[in-house]
């Protein structure tokens, strides 16, 4: 018997919001932020619904690290 995903409710809210707003993500920032908060509360891998948000966070961290080592473009 599997446990209920702790962030499933937020994932469903995202789907409802996106459907109601013709999949315009910017109109669903509040529910996306709630999902991020939920995912931050649980260890990685605990919520299958958070897998995309965990990947997004890894990409953001990679970009930050890379941008620190790159000098600004000449003007």
UniProtKB/TrEMBL annotation:
Disulfide bridges in this chain: 7-38, 17-28, 39-50
Location(s) in or outside the cell: Mitochondrion
Gene Ontology CC, one term: mitochondrial intermembrane space
Cited Pfam families: CMC4
Alphabetical UniProt keywords: Disulfide bond, Mitochondrion
Family that this chain belongs to: Belongs to the CMC4 family.
Annotated protein name in UniProt: Cx9C motif-containing protein 4
Organism: Dromaius novaehollandiae
Gene name of the encoded protein: LOC112989747
């Amino acid at each position: 018997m599997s446990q209920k995903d702790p962030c499933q409710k937020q994932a469903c809210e995202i789907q409802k919001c996106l459907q109601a707003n013709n999949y315009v993500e910017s109109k669903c920032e509040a529910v996306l932020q709630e999902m991020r908060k939920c995912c931050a509360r649980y260890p990685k891998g605990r919520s299958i619904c958070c897998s995309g948000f965990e990947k997004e966070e890894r990409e953001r961290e990679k970009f930050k690290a890379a941008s620190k080592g790159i000098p600004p473009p000449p003007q």
